[in-house]
């Protein structure tokens, strides 16, 4: 078997080979022998190549002539047919063969059958082991062999299973109980339950809830109870007195809380989560001069409430155009919009007032619900107003007032607007 460069370092069966086989550079039996043309001596091919790497114009190391060489095939056949001992002969291998003759070469022997040859572990643990002991290594000694934890039976590589990273967490590893005087070894997963019953565990007195501060081993609890029965009785009595006083105080607090709740429920029932406003009366003057619609001034539904405007179309609008008197409501941007609930929901009552007496008014209710279009009920910026929402058929042009009804007087109309705003989150805004 040759080195990366240089000749063969084998132990030959028939003694030292003839000198003509020897490389004059490495002094070993030539590997891939080359004959120089100058003095006809023999060298390893790799030795000559190494020589050529060291200088630009290599010369023969023996005669110093310009170096030129050729492959000596005859000599190579003679050398490779030499009988040699196995490189592991000193270890006990008795194999004899040739350097590279098919079937009997040293490489074939070492790579397949030599039981003394060092081979890499097939588990890739990094070690090289004699082929004869490889099986034992793989099953008994390799750090990468697959084993079961002797405690929890988890399967894994030996190096991991026997490491602290596993043993520090292994649920079935026996661990010495930490209570002084207890010599039991408990599986890690049972430690907590063992401590609940361990006679050596330090525990508080079972009367600690009534004031006994004694701590003792669990096995001493019964003896302590016998020795401290009068103390425990006195502590229990004091605790009962204190509990009675606390119970009376709690009853009183519960009574007061119940009264407060009933009072609040009554107020909630009273308000019904409604924001109710006082009525607003609006005057529509010079009725005969309005060709299209009339928009009232902006008004607030209550102090701190919503801002609105009434829109009146004497000749009708939408579905009531040409046949009815139409009335609509628009929301305006107000001073208190930040504190109000949006979108607006509730009822707006529009009354056309009878100017003869305070009854027989004409009334319609505008409902703002979840079904109302968003553009009609959402908050708008200051100086803007929402889309109109109301009754396009508020009052028919064909309606004839009764003798005690008069809606128009001095070319003017009066409207009364009442608003009830339903609030789900701010019932205090009223």
UniProtKB/TrEMBL annotation:
Keyword Metal-binding found: yes
PROSITE patterns listed in its UniProt record: MATH, PROKAR_LIPOPROTEIN, ZF_RING_2, ZF_TRAF
Chain ranges of the MATH domain: 274-419
GO cellular component: a single term: cytoplasm
Gene Ontology biological process terms in this record: regulation of apoptotic process; regulation of canonical NF-kappaB signal transduction; signal transduction
Signal peptide: none
RING-type domain segment(s): 23-64
InterPro entries: MATH/TRAF_dom (IPR002083), TNF_rcpt-assoc_TRAF_met (IPR012227), TRAF-like (IPR008974), TRAF1-6_MATH_dom (IPR049342), Znf_RING (IPR001841), Znf_RING/FYVE/PHD (IPR013083), Znf_TRAF (IPR001293)
Coiled-coil region: 233-274
Family matches, as Gene3D superfamilies: Apoptosis, Tumor Necrosis Factor Receptor Associated Protein 2, Chain A, Zinc/RING finger domain, C3HC4 (zinc finger)
Pfam families associated with the record: TRAF-mep_MATH, zf-TRAF
Residues in TRAF-type domain copies: 108-155, 165-222
Stated name of the protein: RING-type E3 ubiquitin transferase
Origin species: Amphimedon queenslandica (Sponge)
Designated gene of the protein: 105313825
